[in-house]
Amino acid sequence: MKLPILAYGTPSLRKKSVNIEPDYPDLKKLIDDMFETMYASVGVGLAAPQVGLNIRLFVVDTSPFAEDYPDGKGFKRVFINAVINESSGKEWAFNEGCLCVPEVREDVMRCETIQIDYYDENFVFHSETFSGIRSRVIQHEYDHTEGILFVDRLSSLKKMIIKRKLTDISKGVIKPKYKMIFPSQKKHIN
Ligand code: ZN
To answer: Which of 17, 52, 145, 158 has fewest C-beta within 10 Å?
Structure first.
């Protein structure tokens, strides 16, 4: 089932998410629905807060980047209760977008490498290091669970330039290609 995505300006997108337990209700279905929603809206990652659940869960599939970034191929993962312990390496720019912020794309600087602890969809613990495009997408989704959006990471000049677009999104005066819930609709899932 495809889930509607909360638009920029929705207060819960700014909340820090909480850990979940293995017995979280219908977790498998939620993960399936998140992948379905992500693929349908042509995203490479989706975090639970984007669909109205402030829990520490996100999914990624970086395969669409494989042509330009070979290590993106087949990298499909579920991250639960993730903690980034260390960020290292040189910061690099990559043109990011976000399903909560349709039609806005900007270069974002992020660290090359992260060390992350997380549980997978079977609640098996992993402690891993990722670099490049994998690290990039994980950092973007991880930010969602911390209440941070990619536009927060832009320079004040860039923020000023996109301000109008962000206001339009939060007021719902856009036509997204997928189902969204705007702040004024107050019809949140949780
Ligand atoms: Zn996003």
So the answer is: 158
Cβ(150)–Cβ(106) under 8 Å?
yes
**How far, in Å, from the CA of 44 to the mean position of ligand 1?**
9
Contact, 46 vs 59, CB < 8 A?
Answer: yes
Q: What is the pLDDT of residues 10-37, one digit of tens each?
A: 999 999 999 999 999 999 999 999 999 9
Evaluate whether 88 touches 113 at the Cβ level (below 8 Å).
Answer: yes
Which amino acid is it at 65?
Answer: F
Cα–Cα dist 130/80, whole Å? 16
- Tokens coding 34: 């998140």
148: tokens are 């941070």
Closest CA to 95 of 49, 133, 129, 138: 133
Q: Are strands 76-88 and 113-119 parallel, antiparallel or unpaired?
A: antiparallel
What are the residue numbers of the active site?
141
Residue 129 has pLDDT above 70, yes or no: yes
Question: What value does the mean pLDDT of the chain take?
Answer: 96
- Return the amino acid letter for 143: D
Distance 85 CA to ligand 1 centre (A): 21
